[in-house]
Amino acid sequence: GNACTKGDTCSSGSCKGATVRCDDHNPCTDNRCDHHKGCYYPSKCDDGNPCTIDRCDRYGHCTNSQAVCSYGKVCIDGPCQYPYYYYPYYPYYPYDAPYVPPTPVAAAPIASKPQSYTIPAGTSITLPWGGSMLAAEALQVYNGLAYPGAKPTGFDRELGSPSQVASVGSMALSAMNQWEMIGLAWKEAGFNMTLIQPNKIALPAQGDGQNVVHFNGSTYDYYFLRNPAAGIWTVQIMPVNAASSGSGYSLISGLVQGPIPPIPKQT
User: Fold this and answer.
1) pLDDT tens-digit map of 38-57
2) Which of these CATH numbers, 3.40.50.300, 2.40.50.140, 3.40.50.12780, 2.60.120.380, describes 115-257?
């Protein structure tokens, strides 16, 4: 039978009956009927969320407010309880997991601060490929270490300044056979050296054999400049296949005098 009908009769194989009227006269419930169980009256304000408090006023208006739990607890599927990660004394870590300090991240390697000194004017300077030239002024020397992945190390030098011109007198460098020498030497691994002119353009490495002479080998890279453009020149040094413990280099710069010794020919 159908629990939602009454006075059922059967006629020509068809059952009919009067519909049962379900009404509990409660504005806060829905009047429904189940064919097997009959009338039932579910709350009309139930939003299906176990963590809200459902209320209904006498006019049938619903409110659904969030459940308020005591400090440290949250509503999980109805009851207020501590979340899985909560522990009263160590609230930031799971109560059953030991604290593991974070692994320190190594800082990116950088070039060490170079140590500098000067070579007095008048000193004879031996070049890496043999031969020597005379220091026409005090030469500046920088010794440092470079590491793999380090950014290029830069050194600034002012060339063609009034003080520099005064130090060599009124005669041109070419007449006195003087050169601005910028040389880099090392023992292991390798380095690339680039000269940035005052106009911010890199000096061509091949040189011209007259005003720019460039010598480089397996352990050195030297430039000799005659009458360089006045302004700030930047020397950039970049290690190639540097050792993890650092690769040493020595940079020397300043005015030198005399003919440039040629590189001996390989026999």
Assistant:
1) 999 998 888 888 888 888 88
2) 2.60.120.380
